[in-house]
Amino acid sequence: RRLTLRAHGLLADVPVHDVWRVALPGGGPSRTMQDVRSVSQAAKRSHPLSPPVRALFALRWLLGRLFRWDSPLSKPELWSFRTRLTEADRQQSIVEPGTLDGPFAVLYVHTTEAVSEIRNATVHAFLVWALEPAPDGYQLFWAIHVLPVSAWTKPYLALIDPFRRWLVYPSLLRRIHEAWSREFKSAV
Q1: Please, are residues 139 and 22 in contact by the beta-carbon 8 Å criterion?
Q2: Cα gap 82→90, rounded to integer Å
Q3: DSSP H helical segments within 47-168, as ranges?
Q4: SS3 (DSSP) at 40
Q5: Burial class of residue 179, CB neighbours in 10 A (0-12, 13-18, 19+)
Q6: Whole-model pTM?
Q7: Is there a contact between 94 and 107 (Cβ–Cβ < 8 Å)?
Q8: CA distances for 23 relative to 27, 36, 59, 158, angstroms
Q9: Per-residue pLDDT for the chain (188 aa), expressed as one digit of tens each?
C-alpha cells in the first residue's frame, strides 16, 4: 500500500488476497514492466515449471473442465474491470486492454505497474505487478486481489491456498528472479 499505484484506486473495493515480493538484482537504470513481461515470457519458454507445479496446474484445468468452472463468460462489458479504466489508463497502456495473457486478460500495463484479470465460476481475480527501484536493482511486488463470485469461491480458495503459497507462487516468482538475473546479470 505504500506504493502509489493506479491499481489501488481501480481495485479499491476488491479484497487483497496475497502479496509477494521478489528481488530483481541489477538491471541498470530505467527498467519497466515491459522488461519484467519480456523476462517472464522468456522464462516460460526456456524454464518449465517443476513437475509438482505442472501437475497442480494440470489438475486444476482438469477440474475446471469437469465442473465447467472455466467456460467462457459472455458480455465482459457487464463484469470486466476494463469498463472502469479511464481514457488515460488506456492510452498509457503498453499492451492493449483485453489482450489475453495466458488465462488472464490485461487491464493495463503502465511503466511500473500492470493489472490483469480472470473471471470464472470460482473467482474474479486480479494480478497486480509493481516494479520499484531498489539499491541493488529492483523489487517486483505481486498482489492477488479476489472478488467472490459464487458459493465455490471460499472453499476453492481454502483448498488451493497451501499449494499456492508453498509450491506454485514460490516456483513462479523464483523462475522470474532467475530469468531476470540471467538477462541482466551484468547490467548495473
Answers
A1: yes
A2: 9
A3: 51-67, 76-79, 87-92, 153-163
A4: helix
A5: buried
A6: 0.91
A7: no
A8: 11, 12, 30, 28
A9: 788 999 999 999 999 999 999 999 999 989 999 999 999 998 888 778 889 998 998 999 899 889 888 877 777 778 899 999 999 999 999 999 999 998 899 999 999 999 999 999 999 999 999 999 999 999 999 999 999 999 989 999 999 999 999 999 999 999 999 999 999 875 55
Q: Is residue 82 within 8 Å of 126, Cβ to Cβ?
A: no
Whose CA is closest to 133, among 27, 36, 41, 35?
A: 27
Map residue 157 onto helix, strand or coil.
helix
Q: Reduced to 3 states, what is the DSSP secondary structure of residue 109?
A: strand
Closest by CA position to 117, among listed 85, 88, 160:
85
Cell of 10: 481501480
CA–CA distance, 57 with 33 (Å, rounded to integer): 25
Pick from 121, 128, 126, 117: nearest CA to 155: 121
